[in-house]
């Protein structure tokens, strides 16, 4: 089963967008959204495994509420923003924390092959009337690690569509990840990272569940 859009034109991610995650990472509430990117090499389907390559020792999970752009959007105003959304889905922004923190730019820790499983469905807006009131839970091997509600977003979906569309043109099929809540492995005491065989499951109201197993791979990406 493939991801809803196997090859998104753009994958735009928002960092530090849940208050509790900002606090656990010892940051301040941002004045503007923190934006970074992932690429299509990261995309995996809802039944695919999450690769754990030898380049990282600190592979971490991030439950995310995501949306897909449905029509070309440039300089959109907030009150019209939701008309540009084709649907909503579940994503896991898998992150290599040791690579992410080697420099002030996060990109190298966010773009490992297979580090963005998402799906299983793209749910149309008419089936998700309250995007600002969705419960989200992430478990690892059945143990709850993250729990939040989208009402805790610092920057909500309409704001993000408006903000992003004033910077760059959004095209149909572009994927936007809205950020992760508190409870990431890097913030645990002691820090706890993903290992071979772990099963990560993200469940969001009205969107279903996304579940992927972590598998160790060699430098070429082949199963070990």
Q: Count every helix, treating DSSP H or I runs of 4 or more residues as helices.
A: 4
Q: Overall mean pLDDT score?
A: 95
For this structure, what is the CATH homologous superfamily? Fumarylacetoacetase-like, C-terminal domain
- When the domains are counted, the total is 1
Question: Please, what is the oligomeric state?
Answer: single chain
Which H/E pattern describes the elements?
Answer: EHEEEEEEEHHEEEHEEE
Biggest sheet statistics: 7 strands, mixed
What's the CATH class, please?
Alpha Beta
Report strand %: 25-35%
CATH architectural name: Alpha-Beta Complex
Please give the radius of gyration in angstroms. Answer: 16 Å
Structural class: mainly beta
Task: Give the termini separation.
Answer: 23 Å
Q: What level of helicity do the residues show? A: 10-25%
Residue ranges: pLDDT <50 for 5 or more in a row?
none
The coarse overall form would be: globular
The CATH topology turns out to be Fumarylacetoacetate hydrolase, domain 2
Strand order within the widest beta sheet: 2-1-12-6-7-9-3
Q: Compute the number of strand runs.
A: 14
